[in-house]
């Protein structure tokens, strides 16, 4: 959905639509069966609603899921089409594997072939393993900065319940949706 010709992010959409309907974060949380903190995280663009919550939000706000998230979909497609993060992560993972395998090889060679002794061989292994772990950390940083919210929703235990777990909740949901 666009306002004044520009795409809006999901966080802004949720906040705007909630305010248009004079709902508090608590009201929205109860309707979507999540905590108020989860709604706050959605509106601050820290997490994405799960599919169940997106369906409830689209029904509550009388819009389609596509219209609700359209701006973010375009943004995510642009990020996913960028091949540079994949290339860099591939190089880092290759280096990570090389360091870890090299560390194991030097440990074995140091102990059994070169006679370096136990302590020096383990020190070399630890250094090589540490370098491998440092590269793995770089891969994780690339993933978290390039795709920060993909797969990182934080549903509360209430979010995993069915839409209406009791007649009282069903009538409340129908009241809020109408």
Radius of gyration: 24 Å
Number of E-type strands: 2
Mean pLDDT, to the nearest integer, reads 78
Walk across the major sheet and give the strand order. Answer: 1-2
Total of helices: 8
Strand content: under 5%
Q: What is the 3D shape?
A: elongated
Return the structural class: mainly alpha
Helix content: 55-70%
Note poorly predicted spans.
Answer: 1-7, 150-165
- CA distance, first residue to last residue: 22 Å
What letter string, H or E per element, gives the SSE order? EEHHHHHHHH
Largest sheet: 2 strands, antiparallel
Summarize the structure.
With 178 residues, the protein is an all-alpha fold. It is 69% helix and 2% strand.
If you had to describe this structure to a student in words, what would you say it looks like?
A two-stranded antiparallel sheet has the order 1-2. Helices cover 69% and strands 2% of the residues. Strand 1 (2-3) and strand 2 form a beta hairpin. The longest helix is centred in the middle third of the chain and has 29 residues, at 84-112. Helix 2 crosses helix 3 and helix 6 runs antiparallel to helix 7 (118-146). The radius of gyration is 24 Å and the shape is elongated. The protein has helices at 10-20, 25-32, 36-43, 51-60, 65-81, 84-112, 118-146, 167-177; strands at residues 2-3, 6-7.
């Amino acid at each position: 959905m666009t306002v004044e010709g520009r795409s809006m992010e999901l966080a802004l959409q949720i906040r705007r639509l909630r305010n248009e309907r004079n709902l508090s974060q608590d009201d929205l949380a109860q309707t979507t069966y999540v905590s108020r903190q989860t709604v706050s995280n959605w509106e601050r663009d820290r997490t994405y609603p799960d599919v169940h919550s997106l369906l409830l939000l689209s029904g509550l706000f009388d819009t389609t899921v596509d219209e609700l998230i359209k701006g973010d979909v375009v943004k995510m497609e642009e990020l996913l089409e960028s091949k540079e993060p994949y290339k860099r992560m591939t190089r880092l993972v290759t280096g990570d594997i090389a360091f870890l395998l090299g560390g194991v090889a030097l440990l074995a060679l140091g102990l059994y072939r070169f006679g370096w002794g136990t302590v020096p061989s383990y020190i070399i292994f630890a250094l090589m393993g540490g370098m491998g772990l440092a590269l793995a950390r770089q891969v994780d940083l690339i993933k978290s900065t390039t795709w920060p919210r993909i797969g990182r929703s934080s549903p509360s235990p209430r979010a995993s319940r069915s839409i209406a777990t009791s007649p009282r909740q069903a009538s409340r949901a129908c009241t809020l949706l109408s």
